[in-house]
Write a structure and sequence with these properties.
Structural class: mainly alpha
Strand content: under 5%
Shape: elongated
Number of helices: 14
Helix content: 40-55%
Largest sheet: 2 strands, antiparallel
Order of helices and strands: HHHHEEHHHHHEEHHHHH
Distance between the termini: 117 Å
Number of strands: 4
Number of domains: 2
């Protein structure tokens, strides 16, 4: 049906009055669609997918290989540096003039007569030039046993490490940056009646044995890392020796240098202290297992070692938890150990070590406020080291007593020592000395002993001392 004329006129009128919005211009794409269709995706074959994955893996393998090569080069460089340091130390010792180790017998005798009337409270120990001369030193401060005609001899090898500074309060301190020493030595004191005292004169002076050696020993006892923080070539160690020298010889202005005979001798003396500590512990443990009830009984020795190194065992406590105890520590019937750090394996050596620092002039002095925590961490580590030598039931030469082998154990023991209360420390020092994880019956690896030290029973109350 055709629309009427009236309808057509009405539609024409509406079209004339309607508002038409203008369209945006079309993009200039001659010969193309305004919005061309995307190309259809093609599926890759399994071979193409595998090839792409292999291509991604190859750079990773190459990077890994490059990293391994860099690590290998770094290790070789470190070994070369160590050898260079050892050779340099050896050459320096040969070039030193007035080397205290090479003093004539007459001078050594004169030195002994000179300080013979001094304080001898240092357990009767005088500075022994011959003992220092005969010491053997390498790149790590270590103690290792050697056998000689049926008895155990402890061999000392020195340390080539870094970062040493004595603690200034009761908490063991980390190393600080040293002050740079003057380049040219200057001496204007009146030591020995001369304007320029020699190293030999200082070493013969009574203050070297009676003040300097006890003070640097005190510095060792308050270290956070007694293994690492003494190194002969370290500028921090040199600064510490200079500070202690100034305290020991307050009327002398003398600037030390790294290859000075005084610095070399101080380094060897402190290594001797660590050697005596470890050898004393090993000697005590060896005498214990030489008793008649342990002779030719390896199983009995092995069982005792496994019990001793537990966190509440006799290696560390004067009165340990009974070996037959099987109750948990939170059980009311648990028999807690008493006398931490006062066991028969620690107390004698600790008492001797504390006497070595008796005449120290380092402030603050050792007491319940300023504790020898580094010393007792060394003692605990040495006890574990000594018992590891008997883990098989008979004596076996242990690994070197060094930072390389016992760094982790030392850190664990320092954490335990740091948790001891002040009153408990008072009992330990006044007495003259200053793991719930079971050990398997088939324990055969000495490294597993260290697992016990992480589960110590640390008394939370002074009543459990």
């Amino acid at each position: 049906m055709q629309p009427s004329t009236k309808v057509k006129a009405l539609c024409r009128q509406k079209l004339q009055t309607a508002v038409v919005n203008p369209r945006d211009p079309l993009p200039d794409c001659p010969g193309q669609n305004v919005h061309p269709a995307k190309p259809a995706a093609t599926r890759r074959t399994p071979q193409e997918v595998a090839a792409k994955h292999e291509a991604k893996k190859q750079p990773t393998e190459e990077k890994k290989q490059v990293m391994e090569e860099k690590i290998h080069k770094g290790e070789k460089a470190a070994e070369t540096l160590v050898l260079m340091n050892i050779n340099e130390d050896h050459d320096n010792e040969e070039l030193l003039t007035e080397n205290p180790q090479r003093l004539s017998a007459a001078i050594r005798k004169q030195g002994r007569e000179h300080h013979g009337d001094g304080d001898t409270d240092d357990d009767g120990e005088d500075f022994d030039f011959d003992a220092v001369e005969d010491g053997v030193y390498s790149d790590e401060s270590s103690v290792g046993p050697t056998k000689s005609k049926g008895k155990t001899v402890i061999k000392l090898v020195s340390e080539s490490n870094s970062d040493f500074i004595p603690a200034k309060n009761s908490k063991p301190q980390k190393a600080e940056k040293p002050k740079h020493a003057k380049k040219a030595p200057k001496a204007n004191g009146d030591l020995g009646g001369g304007d320029h005292p020699t190293a030999a004169e200082f070493l013969r002076d009574r203050r070297w044995v009676n003040v300097f050696i006890p003070t640097i020993t005190h510095a060792l006892y308050i270290l956070w890392e007694p293994f690492l923080n003494f190194a002969s070539e370290s500028p921090v160690f040199l600064g510490t020796v200079q500070e202690i020298f100034n305290l020991s010889f307050p009327n002398v202005d003398f600037v030390l240098v790294a290859d000075d005979p005084l610095v070399v001798t101080a380094y060897k003396q402190i290594n001797s202290r660590k050697s005596k500590l470890a050898s004393g512990i090993l000697e005590t443990v060896t005498k214990f297992f030489n008793r008649d009830d342990f002779v030719n009984q390896p199983e009995k020795i092995r069982d005792f070692v496994c019990w001793a190194v537990k966190g509440d065992g006799p290696a560390y406590y004067k009165t340990p938890t009974p070996r037959t105890s099987t109750v948990a520590r939170d059980d009311p019937s648990y028999q807690a150990p008493n006398g931490f750090l006062q066991s028969q394996f620690i107390a004698p050596t600790a008492e001797q070590c504390l006497r070595y620092a008796k005449n120290s002039v380092l402030h603050p002095p050792l007491n319940t406020k300023h504790l020898p925590k580094g010393l007792y961490a060394l003692l605990l580590t040495a006890v574990e080291w000594a018992f590891a030598a008997f883990l098989s039931g008979t004596y076996t030469e242990p690994r070197l007593f060094s930072h390389k082998h016992y760094w982790h154990t030392m850190q664990v023991f320092l954490g335990h020592v740091d948790c001891i209360s002040e009153r408990h420390w008072g009992v330990i020092l006044m007495s003259g000395n200053s793991v719930d994880d079971d050990v398997d019956d088939d324990l055969h690896d000495a490294l597993m002993i260290s697992a016990c030290c992480e589960d110590f029973y640390i008394p939370s109350s002074p009543q459990k001392v």
